[in-house]
Specification:
Length: 690
């Protein structure tokens, strides 16, 4: 036997290989089935246009769970399982005593097992990469190159190392294999999971907390989640350094803990006394947040949320006590005392948050320091502002298309900044009512989310997120919406280069009719009138939820497209189509309709499910007493102009009476919508009034 000062023990290492070679063999088999075989299967169908595309192959090497679920699952589970099995002897007192009677230092045992695990995990990955490279080179698959395989290998090695070392380190603080497995995955998910739980719960107490801004950032903190997102956003160099540093830190932490661990703790949930309260109150806190969030999301009531806090914390507290003491005899007064102290601390923390002791909710930047303000319904555009055009593939036809991230609505004009700032002041002034409505989920029917991001002159940023009733802030929103800056930020048609346009296609809503415009002069005219219509739109027209006459698709030379609706307020575009002689072919007309039937709509707010009128038996509807049948073209046109989709019924008009309208087209098709009391034609109101 080697000297006791050796880093590794050859006998222990060979014994590990002998006992756990099946892990490496099984891992290799799974990887061969999920990587090179998958590549070969795609290659065998290369005559298919969809398969004959680089991105389809790359999904295998980018850990896309839709294309490589087995591979991703094995990359996550096998390293944790390997760490659990290699140090399984620590959880068994007899095996632990026997192994530690050998004249081998604990550090040497630890290092040898870790080395055995790394070899058992790394060799299958390297062999898989070599087989895949040989396959791609041998078959001449041009869609798979060495860089893709090397990148896959590097990420796989890194993640395997991190997951394995994490499992090993966790194994040092617990004497139960089951707890080791569960805690390993919890630890890998903890950075994201705990952050999301904290954000979710804090957003209930801190009015204006930009939950959406931080949400995406914290989901990236977990290496487990990050691996599955690699196909969307590649792992960065910074993340590689962080994961590598974490692996090294966990390795040395595990070695130190192994050296300090008492052998008689095998079978204990937590092997170090100092960690027992951390485990107990950590589990209690996380369960409290989780169960509280569950009840709030289902019941929408703070009373239920507090009940969830109490239930989750109480159950978790005593479950932790049972695990730590390996006994059901934990329901004692002295343990209840510990739970009582925990409850008092939590109540104090909730009080600090609820009463905004730090003044966060009232804090506004000095207006003279504001350089710009971002205002939108979400933070998505702001986060995507530095990303370039993306290329994606339509999975149905294999055609590549390009996607331009939206332009962030960052306002720099003084008037808009002043109006947004004034609206924010009003929101802050009304925060008590807004907070109360949010906590009870009693938001107004036309509530909308607004996200604000201030950029200050000193480079600092301030973020806020609110749920507001739009009608209460219409006076502030109107000048902002009607400004040229707002329209230019939100309408790509105003930023389009006419020379880049190949085709404009106008597709009518509700019927198979369309118009194609390919003449450059006509394209320029169409874009010009559309731009004038967009500039002339009022706030009321922009918030009007009536469906457009038609959908307009503008194809660009760089394989991108711009989509917009032919809104019913776009009079200039309608007149231009009339002059062109294409108006009748661009929209649904009364001449296309055989007749329409109007009926008083049921109270959809009180129905969990309802059958769309277009699916009803039209004959039965016609025979229903009191319905209104319309064949007059002028009346049909009035109905079409004021028609709303069913989706609008839940937005801002739930308290209005509504009429359902079913149109029977001359081609036999039907479609349906709603007329609200406010904008229903007079003849409809008169009919049902009588």
């Amino acid at each position: 036997m080697k000297s006791k000062t050796s880093l590794l023990n050859r006998g222990i290492l060979l014994n590990d290989f002998k006992r756990f070679a099946w892990i490496g063999a099984g891992y290799l088999l799974i990887l061969l089935l999920s990587v090179p075989l998958k590549v070969f299967m795609l290659y065998s169908k290369s005559e298919d246009m969809i398969i004959n595309n680089t991105s389809v192959y790359l999904r295998i090497f980018q850990f896309d769970t839709n294309a490589a679920l087995l591979q991703v699952m094995s990359l996550i589970i096998v390293p944790v399982l390997t760490g659990l099995l290699l140090f399984r002897y620590l959880q068994d007192s007899q095996a632990s005593d026997m192994l530690h009677t050998l004249p081998v230092k604990r550090e040497t045992l630890y290092q040898t097992h870790v080395m055995a695990g790394i070899i058992l995990l790394f060799v299958p990955l390297i062999l898989t990469a070599l087989v895949t490279w040989a396959l791609a080179a041998g078959l001449g698959i041009e869609h798979v190159n060495g860089t893709d395989i090397l990148s896959w290998l590097a990420v796989s090695l890194l993640m395997n190392l991190l997951f394995f070392i994490c499992s090993v380190a966790v194994g040092m603080i617990t004497g139960m294999s089951t707890v080791q497995g569960v805690l390993s995955f919890i630890l890998l998910l903890l950075p994201s999971g705990l952050s999301l739980l904290l954000l979710n719960n804090m957003s209930k107490y801190i009015y204006g907390l930009p939950y959406g801004f931080y949400y995406d950032n914290v989901t990236h903190l977990s290496p487990l989640i990050r691996l599955t997102e690699n196909s969307i956003r590649s792992i960065t160099a910074v993340e590689i350094v962080v994961y590598l540093a974490s692996s090294i830190a966990l390795y040395f932490l595990g070695r130190r803990l192994y050296r300090k661990r008492r052998l008689e703790t095998a079978g204990d949930a937590i092997t170090f006394d100092i960690l027992r309260p951390v485990f107990k109150y950590g589990v209690t806190f996380c369960f409290m947040l989780l169960v509280g969030s569950y009840f709030y999301s289902n019941q929408g009531n703070m009373g239920w949320t507090y009940f969830g806090y109490f239930l989750g914390s109480l159950l978790a507290y005593f479950l932790a006590e049972i695990l730590l003491n390996k006994s059901l005899q934990v329901f004692q007064l002295r343990r209840l005392k510990g739970y009582g102290i925990y409850c008092l601390v939590i109540i104090a923390l909730l009080g600090l948050l609820h009463f905004d002791c730090a003044g966060y909710e009232k804090r506004l930047p000095d207006p003279v320091e504001v350089r710009s303000i971002y205002l939108d319904y979400s933070f998505y555009a702001l986060k995507e502002k530095d990303n370039n055009i993306r290329t994606a593939v339509n999975v149905r036809d294999g055609v590549q298309y390009k996607y331009q991230p939206p332009v962030p609505a960052i306002f720099t004009e003084k008037d808009n900044i002043a109006n947004i700032y004034a609206m924010h002041q009003k929101i802050v002034a009304n925060r008590l009512d807004g907070k109360k409505a949010f906590l009870t989920k009693r938001t107004n029917n036309d509530s909308q989310q607004i996200c604000l991001a201030y950029e200050l002159e000193n480079g600092r940023h301030i973020y806020r997120q609110y749920e507001i009733a739009a009608q209460d802030y219409a006076a502030y929103l109107k000048p902002i919406y009607e400004s040229r800056e707002y329209k230019q930020l939100h309408n790509e048609i105003l930023r389009i280069n006419i020379a880049d346009i190949n085709l404009i296609e106008v597709s009518a809503s509700g019927i198979n009719k369309n118009v194609h415009i390919i003449d450059p002069e006509l394209i320029a005219q169409a874009v010009g009138v559309l731009q004038s219509d967009v500039y002339e739109r009022s706030y009321e027209e922009m918030t009007d939820m009536r469906p457009p006459w038609a959908h307009i698709n503008i194809s660009l030379k760089d394989h991108r497209s711009v989509d917009l609706g032919w809104e019913k307020s776009y009079d200039n575009f309608g007149k231009w189509l009339i002059d062109l002689g294409a108006y009748n072919q661009a929209r649904l007309l009364p001449d296309d309709i055989a007749y329409a039937i109007v009926d008083k709509s049921p109270d959809l707010n009180k129905q969990d499910m309802y059958k769309l009128p277009s699916q009803l038996d039209l004959q039965d509807l016609e025979e229903k007493p009191g319905i209104l049948k319309i064949t007059d073209p002028e009346k049909l046109e009035l109905c079409l102009r004021n028609l709303r989709n069913y989706g609008n019924y839940n937005r801002g008009n739930m308290e209005q009476s509504a009429y359902s309208v079913v149109f029977l087209l001359k081609n036999g098709a039907t479609f349906a919508g709603l007329l609200f009391e406010d904008d229903a034609p007079a003849f409809v109101k008169e009919h049902f009034a009588g």
